[in-house]
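quick one, 306 residues, struct below
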Amino acid sequence: MTITSTARRARTVLTVAAGAALLSASACSTSAGADGEDSAGAPSETSDQGEQQEGGQNTSDGGGAATSSEQGDGDSDEGSEQNDGVDAGDEDEATEPTEPETRLVLVTDLGPEEPGEGDLVRSPDQLAALLTGPLGGMAECYDELTLSPGATASCMGPASVDSPDPDQEWTAHSVRIPSAEDFTAGSRVAILFTTGGALTGPAEVLLEETVSLTGLGVSSTFGAEDLDSEQLAQHTLEVLTSPNAYVPVDYADWEHVSCQDGLSFATFEPVACTATTAGGDHWELEVAPGAFAGNDQGLLVGIETL
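---
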């Protein structure tokens, strides 16, 4: 063998070896690539986890939005409950029973005066008879009534002419009414029965010794709607000029009435008015709802005589 042949074989061996090495490297590279793909799987998984984390963050954000929405819903529900509470309160307030109407019985004829000194007195039995006179049915009074300013007595009697059972609380008040001849000549005693307890607050002015009462029933539907000041003045003038009033005072030649405010039958509170006669005299009035038991609804008018 020659040196040249030997060299060629050596190169061939080297070439083969190099090729083998390249093939090995390629195989390693392929293996590494496969491993790389496997390794890439881990980042991919990490990315998925990252996406999951990001998704988790999104979910968390979404969850935050959901939480916010839920909180919003909670707030809405809470607000709804609060609104329901307010609505319930409004409903309760709306359905809260109103104060019962104060009904009246004005008794101007107390029977013969009993001889003796001091103020007149009516016994419980006499009061019961005076109360049932216009109502019928049965009544019972528990105290005697001294006919002096501010005196009261408690009774139980019929609620109306249609309800004869004595299941309505009444209070008898000693009041004054105009003289039959001329209200400027003085006044005389009478009894005003009102449903419920004794009159208090603004209504107490009707019980003063300087106020003389009269009244008139207008109609069964009168007072169903509030009266404005002009309507009240007009109807008050009708009471003063009517010969059918509880105590007629038409002899005074009334010409005009003006009132400071309107009147509602919902509360028993008088309204201040002023009456003027044809001669130019002015008289102060206290006008209250006249829910007369056993008669038409109308007005109770107090004339300040002093």
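Helices lie at 3-95, 124-135, 229-241.
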